Amino acid sequence: MHPTRFPELNQVLRTLVSWIQDTLPDAFVGFYLQGSFALGDFDDHSDVDFVVLVRDELEPSRVDRLQVIHDRTYQLDCEWAKHLEGSYFPLETFRDLTKSGTDVWYLDHGARVLIPSAHCNTLLVRWVVREQGIILHGPLPRTLIDPIPAASLREEILHVIAGWGREILDNPARYANRFYQGFILLNYCRMLHDLRRGYPGSKREGAEWAKSAFNSSWSPLIDRAWATRPDPARQVREPADDEDFKQTLAFVELAINESGRMAGKGDCA
Fold first, then answer.
1. CA neighbor of 137 nearest in space, from 39, 28, 62
2. Which member of 16, 17, 167, 199 has the greatest number of CB atoms within 10 A?
3. Under CATH, which architecture does the 7-143 domain have?
């Protein structure tokens, strides 16, 4: 199993999959990489997004055993082990698009404990797993879930652009650190690009598209956002550059308005 070009990460993933198999021998369906590794635009600073499919809802005793596994994984002598992020989906939940947005067991980036969260339970994640997911264990994901309609993806993206945007603009102090400043900007570039074409792409694709789609005055800010990606644990404790953060909030407003315009005019293709 050589799912990435990083041998140390591959070993971490092999170990984690083996431990999950031993813990859930009759319930484990599959383990898939999604996110930047699946989309082919990863680098040394990428988090490692995954989805684990299980046959049914996990019983508390099994969740307890998985908690032990993820704590052990975090303690492996490899930095990649601290940059895993993913969720456990019961197969029925993964297949049923109407269950998007409900809580599943989730490992946050940099965490060692599973928590209930809807973070990964999106149509976008399902699309990436189905269309481009990297299989570490299990059947082809296309055999497990029907195609995700582009119209449904666009509806979800519009909801996130507007909802998260209003949250950011109403409470900017919560996001005024170096990590979130760049994270917000790059994600809004990606979401607008995804909205336009109707399927998910990477942050880099979105950033390059935004630099050509909008006024060139935004390009230096977008380029600087990449410098906020290394060492997120440190960056989140450092204040954002005042001017860059002010411009990022302005870009969020632009994105909300632009997404509404694109939806209203049908300019999403």
1. 28
2. 16
3. 2-Layer Sandwich (3.30)
Q: 76-107 pLDDT, tens per residue?
A: 999 999 999 999 999 999 999 999 999 999 99
Of all residues in the chain, the percent with pLDDT exceeding 70 is 98
- What is the per-residue pLDDT for 44? 77
CB 4 within 8 A of CB 10: yes
Quick one: average pLDDT of 204-211?
95
* Whole-prediction pTM: 0.92
